From TrEMBL:
<feature type="domain" description="Lipoxygenase">
    <location>
        <begin position="1"/>
        <end position="117"/>
    </location>
</feature>
<dbReference type="Pfam" id="PF00305">
    <property type="entry name" value="Lipoxygenase"/>
</dbReference>
<protein>
    <submittedName>
        <fullName>Lox6</fullName>
    </submittedName>
</protein>
<dbReference type="GO" id="GO:0016702">
    <property type="term" value="F:oxidoreductase activity, acting on single donors with incorporation of molecular oxygen, incorporation of two atoms of oxygen"/>
</dbReference>
<keyword id="KW-0223">Dioxygenase</keyword>
<dbReference type="InterPro" id="IPR036226">
    <property type="entry name" value="LipOase_C_sf"/>
</dbReference>
<dbReference type="GO" id="GO:0046872">
    <property type="term" value="F:metal ion binding"/>
</dbReference>
<keyword id="KW-0560">Oxidoreductase</keyword>
<dbReference type="InterPro" id="IPR020834">
    <property type="entry name" value="LipOase_CS"/>
</dbReference>
<dbReference type="InterPro" id="IPR013819">
    <property type="entry name" value="LipOase_C"/>
</dbReference>
<dbReference type="InterPro" id="IPR000907">
    <property type="entry name" value="LipOase"/>
</dbReference>
<keyword id="KW-0479">Metal-binding</keyword>
<dbReference type="GO" id="GO:0034440">
    <property type="term" value="P:lipid oxidation"/>
</dbReference>
Length: 117
C-alpha cells in the first residue's frame, strides 16, 4: 500500500522517537547530539504542522469554519486517513527501512553485495 500517508509515516513520523530520545538522553555537549541537532531542530514542529494542515481531523475550527486537512479534501476522509495510517504504521519495521536493507528493497543495491555477507 503506497499512499501519501505511508510517505508521512515512513519519513517524518518515524523520526519523532529518535528526536525525543536524543534530546532527553544525550548531553548538549555530546558529539552525536551536536551532529544531529541541526537535522532534528525543526522536525517536531514540522510534524505538528503537518498533522494539522496535511492530515487534519475534520473537527478543527478556522475562522468559524470546519477545517479539513489536505489529505481529507484530496485523498480520503479523516476516518480512512487514520485507518491507512494505522495499517502503514503496523507494517513499519525499522530494520526494513535502515541501510542496506532499504537500498536492496528499492533495487539500488543487489542483495548479494559484500555489505550483506
Amino acid at each position: 500500500m503506497r499512499s501519501p500517508m505511508c510517505c508521512r509515516i515512513n519519513t517524518h513520523a518515524c523520526m519523532e522517537p529518535f528526536v525525543i530520545a536524543a534530546n532527553r538522553q544525550l548531553s548538549l555537549l555530546h558529539p552525536i547530539h551536536r551532529l544531529l541537532k541541526p537535522h532534528f531542530r525543526k522536525t517536531l514542529h514540522i510534524n505538528a504542522v503537518a498533522r494539522q494542515i496535511v492530515v487534519g481531523s475534520g473537527d478543527q475550527r478556522k475562522n468559524g469554519d470546519i477545517f479539513r486537512g489536505i489529505h481529507e479534501v484530496t485523498y480520503a476522509s479523516s476516518k480512512y486517513n487514520m485507518e491507512m495510517s494505522s495499517k502503514a504504521y503496523k507494517s513499519w519495521n525499522f530494520t526494513e527501512f535502515a541501510l542496506p536493507n532499504d537500498l536492496v528493497k528499492r533495487y539500488v543495491m543487489h542483495g548479494n553485495s559484500p555489505v550483506n555477507n
